[in-house]
Amino acid sequence: MKSNPTSAHTCLATNPNHHLWNNHGTWFLHHTIYPTPETKQRVRRSLKTRDVFVARQRRDFCLANPLVSRHLAPDRMAA
Fold this sequence. Notes:
The longest helix has 13 residues. The chain is α+β, with helices and mostly antiparallel strands. Strands 1, 2, 3 and 4 form a four-stranded antiparallel sheet that branches. It is built from two helices and four strands. Strand 3 and strand 4 form a beta hairpin.
């Protein structure tokens, strides 16, 4: 039986860029998922934008829709 991975994320109101990482001008999403109770996996995904506001929207979409966003290119995500 295949289980859906879970994400242990907390969005801190004091840090609007939580889970975001700027690598030479391009924003990335960085978080951890737990495919099984015994394992964890770090996820790093380019959001393909230099705009922090667009990066926040794409991050929010990815975290709210993990199974859908895994197969979408960042420019196809709801903004």
